[in-house]
Amino acid sequence: MTRRIRIFDTTLRDGEQAAGVNLNLHEKVQIAQRLDAMRVDVIEAGFPAASDGDMEAVRAVARIARHAAVAGLARTRENDILRAFEALKGALRPRIHVFIATSPIHMEHKLKLSPREVLEEIRRGVTLARSLVEDVEFSAEDASRSEIPFLKEAFSLAIQCGATTLNIPDTVGYAEPSEFGQFVHSVMEAVGAGDSVTWSVHCHDDLGLAVANSLAAVMAGANQVECTVNGLGERAGNASLEEVVMALRTRRDLFKAETGISTPLLYPTSRLVSRLTGIPVPPNKAIVGDNAFAHESGIHQHGVLSKRETYEIMDPRDVGAPSSSLILGKHSGSHAFRERLNEMGYNLSEEDFKAAFKLFKDLCDRKKTVTDQDIEAIVADRLVTLPETCVYELVNFSVQAASDMASATVTLKVQGEEHTDAAAGNGPVEAAYRAIDRITGLSPDLKEFRISAVSGSSDSLGEASVEISLEGRAALGRWASTDVIEAAIGAYVNALNRLSLLGVTSNG
Ligand SMILES: [Zn+2]
Q1: Per the entry, which co-factors are needed (predicted)?
Q2: How far is the CA of 202 from the centre of ligand 1 (A)?
Q3: Which residues are annotated as a binding site?
Q4: CA–CA dist 480, 432 (Å, integer)
Q5: How many Cα atoms within 13 Å fall on the side-chain side of residue 152?
Q6: Could you tell me the distance, in angstroms and rounded to a whole number, from the CA of residue 170 to the centre of ligand 1?
């Protein structure tokens, strides 16, 4: 008597809307491959009408997904729906996800449409989408602040026009679990569609309740949860996929429901997404944080050693958390290295694999042991960000530093052409950044700058992360190296490349 809950992942659409996140096509494909392998039911790959980049991303994900349905988001407008259909043409299971707001505040102030006009939009949009594909989802944006009688009309109409999944979003993260569960129940009951449709929820985390609200909705009868890896998303983010999945699994006794997710891929997928988006996972994050299974207190350690279940409600192996991250060294061959990369979720072309193996061997010459984190740091930063999307490439640099003054000379390739410049600063990193600014002609604000050790040992790689902003656009950059100055410069160049993906660039 277990119900099957569908996991609809929107890391590549809602997650990608998180401030400072801008994934390139190659990175989106890497993440989609991983989501597909993890057996999410639906991958929402983008909003094709929003930009050419989204269009291309949905098209690419549609081509590679073997198991999951691939969804493209669309407003009720004809052009949005046709673009989504166009992008989804190569998909085995295409889904068009049509949405329009149904709350009084959104209808009046954002859409400037009357409730009648909104219903007319739903009728036209859903009918058109259903004429193109079998699988249509309809979302009533801001549903949690909409009136139930109007939602009943909107959803009933969407079902009549062919929608088979109905989504009830808590767009602004305003709901509270017991209330939201009751709300979902009331909407389902009012519409009275029985088992002929799938009810879905999409909760935001503004009050830290996205997962709790999603689970309350499952209790009330929802069969699909929209979520993202690491809970990424607009503002405070979405419901976290790993938390929803493990809550349902760990408390199967209560929910009497299961997902199709291959849970040992949760941890590596979280790492992959964190690495590619540049958004770190807090150590105390449930399920996938570094400390999620760390027992610090002696009493707890003793308990776990005599019987794991005394203090552990989940087996770390079930979520793919590594028991030991020390894995490879100088004598490891390319076969073992390739296997490890695959396990970590990286799917490289032959050419990129050769380059990665060379980076690994170079690293082994400089470091006794190479950890998963080290491999991730070098492979993701240097290879997954596609060379053809890199406007700027660091060729070399030199710095001279005294206690109160430093100077730096940097050579960058800007769209294939080398430029060198020099500058002074209070420290070597500042001097190098100024030299880079002279070359690019850009002077972004440095909002954040951090250097940390990739792993715990004294010969650890240093990893720099920076956040820069220019013309109202922000970008994160990361780079790891055994030389911290190089890491700092690499992170800055990486952030500039990500900014250039947003159209902020110069020819130097
Ligand atoms: Zn959302």
Answers
A1: Mn(2+)
A2: 7
A3: 14, 202, 204, 238
A4: 17
A5: 12
A6: 8
Kindly report, residue by residue over 151-174, the tens digit of the pLDDT.
Answer: 999 999 999 999 999 999 999 999
Say how far residue 68 (Cα) sits from the centre of its chain: 17
**Rounded to the nearest whole angstrom, what is the distance from the C-alpha of residue 171 to the centroid of ligand 1?**
6
CA–CA gap between residue 124 and residue 307 (Å, rounded): 60
> At residue 504, does pLDDT exceed 80?
no
pLDDT computed for residue 508 by the predictor: 44
Binding residues for Mn(2+): 14, 202, 204, 238
Show Cβ contacts of residue 144 under 8 Å, excluding neighbours closer than 6 positions.
168, 169, 170, 171, 172, 174, 175, 180, 183
Query: How far does the centroid of ligand 1 lie from the alpha carbon of residue 169, in Å?
Result: 7
Q: What is the pLDDT of residue 334?
A: 86
Q: What is the pLDDT of residues 253-303, one digit of tens each?
A: 999 999 999 999 999 999 999 988 888 899 899 999 988 887 767 777 777
d(CA 494, ligand 1 centre) in Å: 28
Residue type, 502: L
CA of 166 to the centre of ligand 1 (A): 15
Residue 399 has pLDDT above 70, yes or no: yes
